[in-house]
Amino acid sequence: MGEKTMDLAADHAVEAILREELVREARALAAVAPVLRHLLGTEAQSLLSDAILARVRGMMGDLASQLLAIGAGRDPATRGGAAADPAALDALAARLMADEGLLAFCHAAATEGLIAQRLHQRHAIDPVLSPLLQELIASEDPAIAALAMTTLAAQSRFVQGQRRMELPLGELPAELFHRVTAMARSEGEETAAFSRAHAAYDEAASRIGLLARLVAAMRRGVLAGLGLEHAGLALFSSALAAATRQPRSLCVLACHEGQGMGLALRLRAAGLSPAAIERQLSLTDTAARLPRAFAEVSSDRAAVLLATGGRV
User: Fold this and answer.
1) Separation of CA 159 from chain center
2) pLDDT of residue 308
3) CA 229 – CA 106 distance, rounded (Å)
4) Residue 84: which residues within 8 A CB-CB, separation 6 or more?
5) How many CB atoms lie within 10 A of CB 126?
6) What's the 3-state SS for 19-84?
7) I need a surface site. Which of 103, 168, 292, 304 has the fewest CB within 10 A?
8) What are phi and psi of 275, to 5 degrees?
9) Residue 6: its pLDDT value, please?
10) CB half-sphere exposure, 270, CA atoms < 13 A
């Protein structure tokens, strides 16, 4: 009886620590979009990573440039070109920056690019061709092999695009794609051109769509995607999102330094052991430490804590 009481006390103590850390990490993430929106409109850039700010600002300008190109009847891949009106470009970019959902998406993309770069520099984890992706390309199933090759090409374009601070319109999730094109049309752009862009849009062909399809094709082998060194950040984030049924962007951001508890709970909810979780934390956040008795937190309980944001 006494031992059972002590065990329950230990369980409550570790959950209290986990809840407190989850709330802290969630509070930090919630502050990102408002701070980004403020800093992108001012010169007070020192409060946030210059690299993040530059990439988000560049992606917003790039999206605006593509939208103006469509409105002018040109291929969006040509961007605005020399004929683009700088005032119209700035005005549309400002409207895009006011959309919190789009801002959050661009922030997650920029963060993914920078985390992948850091993992490559510190741990030699290739941001494009991971060992797992190589295995999938060599799959005996021709459909999986073809899908993996297409995903490789998309991931390569993403890494190159991040270096150029670009974000093709077709890489946006459907909800955001339709929202930003509606913004541009409200500026008086030609609707027929946007109708053609809508007809050409295919969310499943986007990088995130391809990664999700590849993870789904792995079926039970999805557990192989929960090792950063083996899967690489892109597949790891998509596999973790599928295993936990959480937004992929949150799984990406959980790999950022200072978000270790959220990553640990997601990996626990996905079924990983504390030892395997510690290995992943050693790659993403060397300062992160699992609390004592973390092993007592079951996968189901970790999922509950994540679903409630620690507020239980």
Assistant:
1) 13
2) 82
3) 25
4) 65, 68, 69
5) 16
6) HHHHHHHHHHHHCHHHHHHHHHCCCCHHHCCHHHHHHHHHHHHHHHHHHHHHHCCCCHHHCCCCCC
7) 292
8) -65, -40
9) 38
10) 30
Residue at 145: amino acid letter:
A
Residues 6+ apart with CB under 8 A from 158: 109, 113, 171, 207, 234
Asked if 233 contacts 127 with a C-beta cutoff of 8 angstroms, the reply is yes
Say if residues 76 and 44 touch (Cβ distance below 8 Å). Answer: no
What residues contact residue 131 under an 8 Å CB cut-off, 6+ apart? 229, 230, 231
Nearest to 225 by CA among 302, 148, 117: 148
Q: Count other Cβ atoms within 10 Å, centred on residue 94.
A: 13
pTM to 2 decimals? 0.83
Would you state the pLDDT for residue 81? 63
pLDDT of 110 reads 94
Give me the pLDDT at residue 61, please. 94
pLDDT block averages, 10 residues each, the chain of length 312: 45 76 74 64 50 92 93 82 78 92 94 95 96 96 97 98 95 96 70 87 97 93 92 97 94 90 93 94 88 88 84 52
Whole-number pLDDT of residue 37: 66
Burial state string for 2-31 with b = 16 or more CB within 10 A and e = fewer than 16: eeeeeeeeeeeebbebbbebbeebbeebee
Q: How many residues does the chain have?
A: 312
